[in-house]
Write a structure and sequence with these properties.
By secondary structure, this protein is an alpha+beta fold. The chain has three helices and 21 strands. The chain has helices at 3-31, 54-76, 353-358; strands at residues 80-90, 102-104, 110-120, 123-132, 137-145, 150-157, 164-171, 174-180, 186-194, 198-207, 211-219, 222-229, 243-249, 258-259, 267-268, 275-281, 284-293, 296-309, 314-322, 332-338, 342-352. Strands 11, 12, 13, 14 and 15 form a five-stranded antiparallel beta sheet that branches. It has a four-stranded antiparallel beta sheet with strand order 2-1-21-20. A four-stranded antiparallel beta sheet has the order 3-4-5-6, with no helix packed on it. The longest helix has 29 residues, at 3-31. It starts with a helix and ends with a helix.
């Protein structure tokens, strides 16, 4: 990261801030009132009064210093890359510790992430992002599991663009997948024609939208779409961490999805907005959200109990936070999903690029 890149990134952040400041002013002008007050927000970091350039210089050095040091190390060895992995277990009513989950070995020159578990005809499968270092692109692959062993079945979906986050759902006897398809600038619904290996494009649900990590749930005869969209329109700065948007439709295959009345984004907070999976327990929906660290994507995740979801409004309650310390050597974890029996989680270790490509 160079100083010019750092400055450019902060300029883009300011542009996005200006966009939402303008929206706030428009709300005040239209409604003659401020938006509803948020709940308590506790802060545990020192607050700086910027009356000199010294705090900014210290912050810049704390961010850039490790990058500069790592650049010299990289010249001698090779650059570090993030290599994600996944693990699974029979969760025993969500009581099994994550450190006991069985790790699935990454294929040579690839990594696995964003896992979703799905059961069909008494057999359990994990659909996941399968990232190839060779062309810097993700496919969707599937692994068949039981409590003691797993079998890697291979790639089930590939496009000209990157695919990840393969959300799986069933509707009226058919099985569908909604992977992340940022590269196509839309939200796509794929239908399984021969389980689990063959999928075809069924419907484009939303066009001309850059959306990440889309999930669905069915409630009160409506389909609800939970997705992360950057609505600021700042060119070359698509931030999927900060906004959770919710839409609904009576028909899963519709291309007309309506925002809930509360208005989008329903969550505007980089520490809680981005989706990282979902699961049910006792018919209660829980949404998992990614939590970034400083200059660190997918540092940890939170688990939230959904307390209200309808065409009017959405609310949730944080019930737990999961840090990236439950497996040896991991530095990030950002995804969790489960059905009634099995659960899956992903996590990341740093590895030298030379080694990641070869092993």
């Amino acid at each position: 990261m160079t100083m010019s890149f750092w400055l450019q990134n902060n300029v883009m952040l300011l542009e996005k801030s200006n966009f939402f400041f303008k929206k706030l002013l428009e709300h005040i002008a239209k409604n003659n009132s401020l938006p509803s007050v948020e709940g308590p927000r506790l802060h545990d970091k020192k607050l700086f009064h910027i009356n000199s350039s010294l705090p900014l210089l210290r912050y810049s050095l704390s961010v850039l210093g490790p990058k500069i040091i790592n650049k010299f190390i990289t010249k001698a060895l090779s650059s570090n890359v993030n290599r994600w992995s996944i693990a699974y277990a029979a969760h025993n009513d969500f009581s099994k510790s994550l450190w006991r989950y069985k790790e699935i070995e990454n294929p040579k020159g690839r990594f696995l992430a964003d896992p979703f578990v799905f059961e069909k005809d008494g057999e359990t499968y994990i659909f996941l992002e399968d990232f190839f270092y060779s062309d810097n692109k993700g496919r969707i692959s599937v692994v068949k599991i039981d409590e003691d062993r797993y079998e890697f079945l291979g790639v089930v979906l590939e496009e000209d663009f990157h695919l990840s986050f393969p959300f799986i759902l069933e509707n009226k006897g058919d099985i569908f997948m909604v992977p992340e398809t940022i590269g196509s600038n839309d939200i796509r619904l794929y239908k399984c024609t021969e389980f689990p290996m063959k999928w075809t494009l069924e419907k484009v649900l939303m066009e001309n939208v850059s959306a990440a990590d889309t999930m669905f749930t069915f409630k009160d005869e409506k389909w609800f779409m939970l997705t992360n969209i950057c609505s600021s329109g700042v060119e070359d700065f698509e931030d999927y961490q900060s906004e959770l948007h919710i839409f609904y439709s009576a028909d899963l295959k519709s291309n007309e999805w309506h925002p809930i009345k509360q208005g989008n984004p329903v969550i505007f907070d980089c520490l809680s907005a981005r989706n990282g999976g979902l699961f049910y327990r006792d018919n209660v929906l829980y949404r998992v959200n990614q939590v970034p660290g400083k200059n660190h994507y997918g540092k940890s995740f939170g688990v939230n109990k959904v307390t209200k979801l309808n065409t009017e409004s959405y609310s949730e309650e944080r019930i737990s936070n999961i840090n990236s310390d439950f497996k040896l050597g991991i530095q990030s974890t950002h995804h969790y999903n489960a059905n009634e029996k099995f659960a899956v989680v992903d996590y990341c270790r740093l590895q030298r690029q030379r080694r990641a490509i070869k092993t």
